[in-house]
Amino acid sequence: MIEKRNKKGAIAAVIACAALLALIVVLENVSVFLPADSVPNVLKPTSQLFSVLKKGAVYSLAAVSMNLLNGFTGLFSLGQAGFMLLGAYTYAILSVPVADRAAVYYLYGGSAVNFSFQDMFNSVLGTEGVGGAVSLGLGVAIAMVLAGCVAAAFAYLIGLPVLRLKSDYLAIATLGFAEILKAVFQWQALGPVTNGANMIKNFPTFSSFNITDAGGKVLLRLSVFFPFLVSMICIAVICLIINSSYGRAFKAIREDEIAAEAMGINLAKHKMLSFCTSAFFAGVSGALFAMFVTNAQAKVYTTTMTYEILLIVVIGGIGSISGSVMATFLYVACSEWWLRFLDNEITLASGMKVPFLRAGFRMVVFSVVIMIVVLFFRRGLMGDKELPDLFKRRPKAAGKEEQA
Amino acid sequence: MSENVLHVEHITMQFGGVVAVNDLSLDVNEGQIVALIGPNGAGKTTAFNCITGVYEPTNGKVDFLGRPMIENFPQGKLDKTYLGENKGLYIHRLAPTPDKITQLGMARTFQNIRLWKDQTVFNNVLTAKHLRRTSNLFTAAFRLNKAEEAQQRREVMELLEEQGLAHLKDEVANSLPYGLQRRLEIARALATHPKLLLLDEPAAGMNPQETQELTAFIRQVREQYHVTVLLIEHHMDLVMEISDLIYVLDFGKLIAQGTPKEIQNNPRVIEAYLGVAD
Amino acid sequence: MEFAISVLISGISVGGQYALIAIGYTMVYGILRLINFAHGDVFMVAGLLGIYLSASLPLYVALPLVLLLTVALGFCIERCAYKPLRSAPRMSVMISAIGVSYLIQNTATYITGGQPMTYPVIPFLSDTVKIAGTSTKWVTILTPFLVLALVIALQQLINHTKVGMAMRAVAKDFETSQLMGIKINSVISVTFIIGSALAAVGSMLYFTNFQAITPTAGALPGLRAFVAAVVGGIGSIPGAVIGAFIIGICENVIKSTQFTVFSDAGTFALLILILVVKPTGLFGEKVTDKV
Fold first, then answer.
1. What's the complex ipTM?
2. What's the Cα-to-Cα distance from B115 to each of A110, B175, B181, C216, rounded to whole Å?
3. Cα separation, B216 vs B218, whole angstroms
4. What is the pTM of this model?
5. Which residues of B touch C291 (CB under 8 A)?
6. Which of A263, A265, A272, A278 to mutate: most B Cβ within 10 Å?
7. Which chains contact C through at least 3 pairs of Cβ atoms less than 8 Å apart?
8. pLDDT digits (tens, 9 = 90+) for C204-216
9. Any CB–CB contact under 8 A between B141 and chain A?
10. Phi, psi values for residue A188, rounded to 5°
11. Nearest to A223 by CA among A28, A42, A87
């Protein structure tokens, strides 16, 4: 009976995801198919909406992967930005076309790594038409998987010493590792690989996935679709892990380490599994982030970024995947789009200026809102419930009715 | 003569200058129900923690199912400050973590119930099945272990039915009444397929009637699951009724062992519990 | 040689300034088991207050006022952001601290417009002095002594007054001391007040040396001070001070070599090394879970 219900739920989830993806494609292509003057402002390619959607997709993966570790396994790690940095750099280093390397790495006389996956596939499949598209897709996909693997491998090395530490110490040690990584990637001596403190750019980004004709005119936009697709696949995998036997073991560790160990769950092994899995997806989201900002630069991946993602996780509800996703979009939309008007000075018709409104006010209001959520809605949007739970009739309540 | 399940040899546990368990040796044979009793602070739970791997004993050895499982000798700072006996008898260090010991077939409950409080009854028991899995993270995530998962779910359901908890399977563990939480904790321990079940004060906080039921329950568990039981208990009615063999600890030292009858009439035990008349 | 001395002197001086911040971290952690991420920002606000107040008031009024206002800020943060969460899980409180830090930084950006501000010249402290052949500011020389004096005073307060006794009791066992009739809230307030006051003093010393203040100027010294507190064994005041001196010296030694990029990385590497070797820091107490 349980399995049947699960199967139904899974099918519903797949349908919902497919519908969402279709909606995204439609939304971003309104401007392609309709004449320019009949497109509402919000759907124009330059609209904040699409930027919010892209960043939301990237950050939701980062938030969910952090939730896997902090929310489901109860390990308080603040290394998220560090793993994203690893992912971003791995992706960037493996993806800059060979032809552009000299220009990107001009300070170091070219790059030490002289191949990219896309070029490799291009040489087999050609650069034009379907062959070009396939080699772009494969090149990006392989680079992204490797980005995740590198982050996971580093997580393994970092985890060996630090996972034995208790809550706060673990937090501060992982934060420290993120800072160390940031410094290492800016080190001049590694310049030929990391381009030192300069950014790596010219690799395929989201807009590379737009389908254009020979003249560069966009035929079909997929620049929002792509990050959504990647994030969805990754989040789906995380959901599968959480609902598996291992996910139950993670939750057991979160709720009572001593009981979990007494019931035969190997703490060191499972903490490491969770840590590496989380780092893998953080690495992928880092690669996505690099694509979103169209460059990879170490100084962007600060502790502030980790805090931001942590706040998203908390707002969504620690231990809720759907909460994290919804919170991400709300957070990104508020900070980048909906509250924008607070940054502009507005002069009323009477000539009076609206007080307080000037650059920077948006972030003040935003952080006040966050404080209110943290203080008064402690369980976040969803608590530890998932979206489908809200629609489900709780069997417990039903039982009680019968008794009465 | 039935087979030896647990053989504890000269276990000493020293914290700083305090010797919590001093030179404890005991044996538990297959199918027995053995009780470890003693006044408060006698070191019973510490002894449990040494046997289950939570603490690493300072000195001594534990064999489980005829094989060495834990062994240690005073090292480092403790080498000089060691206050116990039988120093130098052991030279190896064997310190498996609690999960390894549970893997070998020893499961325990806790004095202050340690269920996964926010999870359902069903999930509590199902999670305890995790250690008997053959899947890895990858096969589990992509549902390549469906048969195993279904098998485990079936087993859990059977276990819950046998324990009379089946109708509560979707309740959150925390919402159960105290007696049922204890019972769930035992069911969870049974889910790991133990040969030896260690119960740390299973009747703590129960009224006489519940204690009566528990007595029958422990017996039934032994018959049904072919487990051997080692328990710590303060309720003397229960201990005397149920035990095949009793060990008495006082101030960390074993002061008596024997059948319930022998223990009841042992002057040292009476002295330990009631004090000496001047 | 002269170079080595100047590195050492500035290391000790910066270490002293970190020590003043680290005490705030370590005291709060000792009592609430909370990493007060906002503490570094309180330190930054003290710097900003110094700039704004000294612009319109004479220094001998402005500096005490800075101290007073910083203390008030610390007190308010505790009352508004931490007190309502007293019974909440520790992670919630820590996140609240991150939120406060975010709020303070954003407000500072709003008020200053994000521009670096210049700290006023405090007479005497900013004057240069020659010692062992290297010239430096008076503040560099004075800092370690001032820090030692303050720490000794603080130790006296903790070991020999009623409030100090209450603080030690609360740090040892929060709930029991509550049952014993200790007014938890006032003890915690006192802790925050002391921490903020020391941070204010620290900011005067620190920013006299590093004149520019940006809204994020508190984050890094704050983090370093926190690392110092952890290295020394969080909860222990002498530990925090010694940790801070170690961190300060290490940082300046690394800065003086060609590996300047790694000055913070070095700090964190030291932290991780110490945590791995001795997880509770140099002077921390070992806590074991009861089973």
1. 0.91
2. 59, 11, 8, 44
3. 6
4. 0.91
5. 45, 49, 54, 110
6. A263
7. A, B
8. 989 888 778 888 8
9. yes
10. -60, -40
11. A28
